[in-house]
UniProtKB/TrEMBL annotation:
This is D-alanyl-D-alanine carboxypeptidase / D-alanyl-D-alanine-endopeptidase (Penicillin-binding protein 4). Residues 206-217 have a biased composition (Pro residues). The keyword Membrane applies. GO terms for molecular function: serine-type carboxypeptidase activity. The chain crosses the membrane at residues 292-311. It comes from the Bacteria. NCBIfam families: PBP4.
Length: 748
């Protein structure tokens, strides 16, 4: 319909159509004419509307847009509106009124995106007003009104009148995928195509096609004229659609028709009930949107309840199963647990001297050991179970560290830490480092250990000094805490620096190692000088030799080493010669002796004598055992270890010496015994023996403890001197076999 007009609907739902519409033949097919709306009675127009018929739309026609179907127009000379329709008879009983002016249809339909669907309108009640004079259209100025030729005694009722410009609503316009049934009666004055709106139709529930009710006998017959006019217009080419599409219902209430397969139509049974116009249903997208909103609300509610129920306050209030205060299950029944490791059995069967002698006879008599001395003691009661030349002093090698560590544990508090302190120098911009003997300073960044776990970090000391005095330009070292030479009597010239020893100094980084984590890496030749250089670089200063710190000088920073017990463990487990010498000097400082090799050795012996140990035959030149001048009888080492392994509370020295046992390497497990006891003859002692090793050229020693099969702890010392045998590995293996026999003897 033209855009300037609005659709309207009849005010009456009464069916006034004839009972049957005669079939018309067109193109060899039987068709039925759709109902024609009566003229409107609201004053918008009057006259007959027989010329208002639905144009024929065939499947092959392509719609201009999604809601309009377009039929190609006939040639220009055959335009139907160029002809003048025959005059229509005038009803004498009614005043002559001209037909309302029909607006000219627009040449082109609007595009889908430009055509907005009009809101549904409800039919308005018709008003009984006299029809207005009809104005002729511009393209039909020469056309006369066409009379409907009714009978004189029959006039159209007012409720059957309909405006000639009334067409289908926009929501009933046909979609492009729906094709209308061809109309056999095409008037010459109709448009070549017409829009049919099917927007309101639901494809899911197609309605049966509504046929035009048959014309009453007393209504004017214009079919011959229409047929004559259609004969002059060539019919468009027809193609049968692939799928029949439902024909939209007529805009007004038409009589239901029944269409036979042959094409004949018959009126269906009439009903007395008046058809009720149902309001337009809400679009389904709105229902879907409402469903989505409801679903989102439910989901949000579930999530909120889940989060709330997870809160401890809510779960406890409603006694939910996962509430923190919810009652737990029954307490589990205690289960007896058998410990795989336990202390020595002090009340078990004690070994006998005869049993031990029988167990060690063959192993101790091996010729590989050369000259062997040793002793075995029961620490529970101090009984000597086996003795072989234990009073004869021999070179102990690194077992000397047992005496050095014991003296340090007896003379120094176990929580003592070595200090490295920085004070203000005598000149402005000068810092003096007071070296306190800590050779374990860590050059790594904070959080990473070097070879000595728990050591102090150099960066920490640098940060303290920068904070206290950021204008340090010179760094000096105060090394007066140690005295004497850097090497001991009895050392070889190649012992320091070497892979196992550095020149002794009261301060250095990473024990003087060139590789901080490698115990067998080469030591630097001037460890204290290397420390001064690195420390000065971190401060942005320069190293300036040695100096004595002023009395009462301002402290700029201080760091401390690990406690004494950890230092003794490191010295024993890894047989660290440098740490042993530092411990000996600390014993000398604690006893007011000179902190040198000689002063440390003398202080060690003095402390052990003061604690009741018989040191007959002991001679010491250092605290590490590198000196070949050291001499220690086997029984002295056994006596010190026996006190450390004795029962608790029996000897007051035991509590101080107990950490000595923790520093002994484990056979096949740690330190210098990690790679030993793999031989079949000594594997019985693997994991059950803890002992300190000692090795020099022609000297091999082993001193420690073993737990026998009866659960008793036995203390042993084995010292071998093989001046003519340079095969150290074979001598070590022979010593391991002797100690392993103590593990499995029972010795009763």
């Amino acid at each position: 319909m033209p855009d300037s007009e609005e659709p309207s609907w009849p005010s009456s739902d009464e069916d006034t159509g004839p009972a049957k519409l005669p079939d018309q033949e067109y193109d060899g097919q039987s068709t039925s004419r759709l109902p024609v709306p009566p003229p409107a009675s609201n004053g918008s127009g009057g006259g007959s509307t027989d010329n208002f018929t639905v144009p024929k739309i065939t499947p092959e026609t392509e719609p201009k847009s999604w809601f309009a179907a377009k039929v190609p127009p006939p040639p220009q000379e055959e335009q139907p509106w160029a002809r003048q329709a025959p005059p229509r008879p005038v009803d004498k009983s009614r005043p002559e009124q001209p037909e309302p002016q029909r607006p000219e249809p627009r040449a082109e339909q609007a595009r889908p995106e430009q055509q907005r669907p009009e809101p549904p309108r409800h039919p308005e009640p018709q008003r009984s007003e006299p029809p207005r004079p009809e104005q002729p259209r511009p393209d039909q100025q020469q056309r006369r009104p066409e009379p409907p030729q009714p009978r004189p005694d029959q006039q159209p009722r007012p409720d059957q009148q309909q405006r000639p410009d009334q067409q289908q609503r926009p929501d009933q316009q046909q979609r492009p995928d729906h094709q209308a049934r061809p109309e056999p009666h095409q008037r010459a004055d109709q448009q070549p195509y017409q829009r049919i709106d099917l927007q309101r139709l639901e494809p899911q529930r197609p309605e049966p096609p509504q046929m035009r009710p048959p014309q009453r006998p007393d209504q004017p017959q214009t079919q011959p004229q229409q047929a004559h006019q259609q004969q002059q217009q060539p019919p468009p080419e027809r193609r049968e659609p692939q799928r029949p599409e439902p024909v939209p219902p007529a805009p007004h209430m038409a009589a239901p028709m029944r269409i036979e397969p042959t094409g004949e139509s018959h009126p269906a049974e009439a009903t007395t009930e008046s058809p009720v116009t149902k309001p337009d249903a809400e679009p389904k997208p709105k229902r879907k949107k409402r469903g989505l909103l409801i679903g989102a609300f439910v989901l949000l509610l579930v999530v909120a309840l889940g989060v709330a129920s997870a809160l401890p306050q809510v779960s406890n209030r409603f006694k939910l199963p996962w509430a923190p205060n919810a009652p737990k299950g029954d307490e589990p029944v205690p289960v007896a647990v058998t410990l795989s490791l336990h202390g020595p059995d002090e009340n078990g069967a004690a070994p006998t001297a005869e049993g031990v002698a029988n167990a060690l006879k063959a192993a101790a008599g091996s010729g590989t050991l050369g000259k062997l001395t040793g002793s075995v003691i029961d620490p529970a009661n101090g009984t000597v179970l086996w003795d072989k030349g234990s009073s004869e002093p021999l070179t102990p090698a690194s077992t000397t560290k047992v005496l050095t560590a014991a003296a340090a544990l007896l003379a120094i508090d176990h929580g003592f830490q070595l200090s490295t302190k920085v004070v203000q120098g005598a000149q402005p911009g000068t810092a003096v480092v007071i070296a306190g003997g800590d050779v374990t300073l860590n050059a790594f960044a904070a959080g990473k250990d070097n070879f000595y776990p728990g050591s102090a970090h150099l960066d920490d000391l640098v940060a303290q000094v920068k904070k206290a005095n950021p204008d340090i330009k010179k760094v000096q070292l105060d090394l007066t805490s140690f005295a004497g030479s850097a090497t001991a009597p009895g050392w070889a010239a190649a012992d320091a620096p070497s892979t196992f020893m550095a020149q002794v100094a009261p301060v250095m980084i990473d024990g003087g190692r060139t590789a901080p984590l490698d115990d067998h890496s080469m030591r630097v030749s001037n460890p204290s000088g290397v420390f001064a250089q690195k420390f000065a670089e971190k401060l942005g200063a320069s190293a300036s030799g040695t100096a004595t710190a002023p009395e009462g000088a301002k402290v700029l920073g201080e760091v401390k080493s690990a406690p004494l017990t950890e230092l003794t463990n490191a010295a024993l487990v890894h047989s660290d010669n440098l740490l042993a010498e530092v411990l000996a000097r600390q014993v000398a400082i604690a006893t007011k002796a000179e902190p040198s090799f000689a002063g440390g050795a003398k202080a060690t012996l003095d402390v052990l004598k003061q604690n009741g140990f018989d040191l007959t035959g002991v001679e010491l030149s250092d605290g590490s055992g590198l000196s070949t001048l050291n001499k220690i009888p086997a029984k002295v080492l056994s006596q010190v270890l026996a006190v450390a392994a004795g029962p608790d509370g029996k000897d007051p020295r035991t509590a101080k010496l107990r950490p000595l046992l923790a520093g002994l390497p484990v056979a096949g497990g740690s330190g210098t015994l990690e790679k030993r006891y793999d031989d079949a003859n000594s594997s019985d002692g693997k994991g059950w023996i803890r002992a300190k090793t000692g090795t020099l050229s022609g000297v091999n020693t082993l001193a420690g403890v073993v737990l026998d099969t009866d659960g008793r702890v036995l203390v042993f010392t084995l010292m071998s001197s093989t001046a003519g045998n340079s095969d150290t590995d074979s001598v070590r293996a022979a010593l391991d076999v002797v100690a392993a026999k103590l593990r499995g003897c029972g010795c009763k």
